[in-house]
Structure prediction request, 986 residues.
Amino acid sequence: MSVTGPRLQPTLAELSRPGRGGYPVPHPPSDALDRIPAEHRRPAPPGLPELAEPEVVRHFVNLSQLNHAVDTGFYPLGSCTMKYNPKLGEWAARLPGLRPPPPVRAGRGSPRGPSSSSGPSSRPSPRSAAWRRSPSSRRPERRAS
Amino acid sequence: MAAVTLQPAAGAQGELTGILMIRAYHRSRGDLERTEVLVPDSAHGTNPATTSMAGFRTVNVPSAPDGGVDLDAFRAVLGPRTAAVMITNPSTLGLFEPRIGELIELVHAAGGLAYMDGANLNAIMGRFKPGEAGFDAMHFNVHKTFSTPHGGGGPGAGPVGVGPKLVPFLPTPRVLREPDGTFRLERPGERPSSIGRLRSFVGNTGVLVRAYAYILAHGRDLALVSEDAVLAANYLKHRLAVDGSYDIPFERPCKHEFVAQAKTLHRETGIRTLDVAKRLIDYGFHPPTIYFPLTVEEAMLIEPTETESLETLDAFADALVAIAREARETPDLVRGAPHTAPVRRLDEAAAARKPNLRWQPLTGRETPCPD
Amino acid sequence: MGYAPHTHDDRRRMLEALGIESVDALFADIPPELRSSPLRLSPPLPEQSVAARLERLAARNRTDLASFLGAGAYRHWTPPLVDQILLRGEWYTAYTPYQPEVSQGTLQSIYEFQSLIAELTGLDVVSASHYDGAAATAEAALMACRASGRDRILVSRAVHPQYRETLRTYAAGAGVAVDEVPVVGEGPAAGTTDRTALERALADSARPPAGLIAAQPNFFGLLEPMAELGAAIHAAGGLFVAVVEPVSLAVLAPPGAYGADIAAGEGQPLGIPLSYGGPYLGLLACTNALVRQIPGRLVGQTTDLDGRRAFVMTLRAREQDIRRERAASNICTNQALLALAAAVYLAALGPHGLRDVAAGSAARAAALERALTEVGVERLFPGPYFDEFVVRVPEAPAVHRRLLDHGVLAGLPLALVEPDDPLLADGLLVCATEVTTDEEIELFAWALGEVLGAAAPRRQPTTAGAGGGR
Prediction:
């Protein structure tokens, strides 16, 4: 017999505390939305919960432990074929070529800064992966430094 | 099958794709009178629901005592209004449809097409090819047969294979191979006979990659997958039949799953299939599918699959036998189960009577924006 | 076959128990004339060989491009915690939570997802998920037909073309007529739904509309006057279906605020990585009044026998396994794991994080617009946009191809998806989000200037700094 299950969890709303946490996202310039007319704007941010990352992780890991799954036990659900899912599949579906990652951003510390509004320089910067790996035969020489 | 579309996002969308192609096929021939799709009464609910979504009327076909489709009843409803028959094979009773050849011949002779619900393909790989047998369309649930994870209810993918008659109607875009060996997607409007799109982009690619990895890893040994799945199901069925606590309505060999019943147990102890299922949780097992198929009283549909060890199969059979004993000796223990799960049985009526589908809004309670 | 636990001895014991010599006896019920030819497949491969093969194939996809492609799926930073949570077997190897006592994790996660999307959309009821934005939009249309008892749907031509194609496919089966409302061709409202044409379509009293579908932002990235569109269809007795992009809802008015009855959309931007089209996440939400018409699973709160709070699938009488041919839809398997991803993403970002992602995307798009303007490339439609817009580029498909050689995926040439629309022939739909770097924008603008300069010297930009590299 299985032992007594783990405890139930509060909801995200119950865990939320005003001013807590928030995943670090680069701050956009303060005028980022000024060009969007007021009638299209949301007057206040959506009422999403405010949590720190450790709480989010614990919440969902604890919730996961309330589930029965093929990886935890026999699941003889007729007509559903709950067989073992080879982990090779998870690896394969996450190959970078099948799930292109976003570029790693230079971030706020970059010389230009994320809110830079200047137009293109005389030559594009060679920092991006795209630049380095462009297969073009017409690729211009790298920036003369 | 002559061709396959990988676009449908799940088995049910695959069914819709298949039935819409069948609709387009009849219309392309100017045959507008075919308004009915025949569906055996043991079918998954998706079959009649799909039929309605595609604009057809469902005509239910009763089962014969052996679990197969009743051929006389089938003949009686077959006719010039029949667009198609949807058959799950092996059936939802876990039985290979014994009269499958006749069913396909009859529907074809009547001018209809034959659709196979491929939900149970895991039982017959390498033993039965629906295309060779004459089916005109079938869907595959890759989250079943090809072991892509169910994800708590999805994502899946529901590729559909079709015979030559339905190739022109496949959803767009298809992947085409150019003479130089490169591949491209069909352009919008390139194949006007297509039924169109079922979704945006090209399909649940990430799911299909997992299925592809599974197929590559097994290769022709997929036939052994089916053999092990069928052997395990028959072994488990045999263990329960020998014990006798549960009714086993169909004696002949099952495929990958089988039906057991708590019919006698219920009559003798008042303990129902639902109670047995909940008590299995206390033994560490997920319950089987219960009260399905709808045609079988106090049904448990048990599918062990090929990836469970003999020890697990035996432990599960032992648990079912022990629960039957508990039903006689300590019925309240069974009736009150589960006892060890995170929660006990739920008040489902209250949930439906006064639906609470979200937590109370946080709007207005959050901190103002830092900027 | 490494996934099967049976030893030779195990199989022998099972066969002995069954009193048979070979497993063939268990397949004897397949009529001999219907038995299969052999599987024409390769021998089984060890995992490392499978892995090598898949790696080779995956490497043929170009992921080195600076991408400005949106058009229905968007690049955003996914916090690593999302995938770490998703990789727990308790989530991804569970099934539909039919047995609530051992599925409280999945059930509560769906309830949280419903709550979070309800907050974003300003609507009351959220389905546990649909296949993708297109299928959710088609289901929304059928829902409007059921609720209104009508069988004609109006859809703006500024809704994603693939959504409209999907809608037509679903509508054909359901016997629903789909009428498209054109977009304004010129002037300040160019590229948005033509309200004069809408009024004409609404005036057809012979076949009153069940609903109107419009997108915010629309396919061209533009902001539509949703309140006015909603008022127009409501006046005609139909329902208003808003197709929304969820990240934008952090800063744009939510559907509930402008009178939408139903919201549908693609949930991929909420922490779900691009994956060649899927699996993504269909969002579908509606007002309380429509709760019995919404297709797909719903999870509700209740209590167990001991009075503890618990969650369960509810209002199941709408569903195919109960209602069969009278179900609201045939949907069964949905996109539950992706709904979990969205819930984790929204919980991690919170209201300010999501707002920063949305505002950051709008800012990067503005930076992109400025950079393209400087090489002489202007927007095709002048109205306000969120993070995506159309620029006028003659021979856009050819230019797009040439930009690939510069390492730039220059969005989507609209002629590829709307080949018959002269208004869009020179349109290039481009997008930037919070992950778009300055370097990518510079590269795009420079390369576009190069390509256009080479292709048509008369268009050579004269702005200082433009056409760099020559």
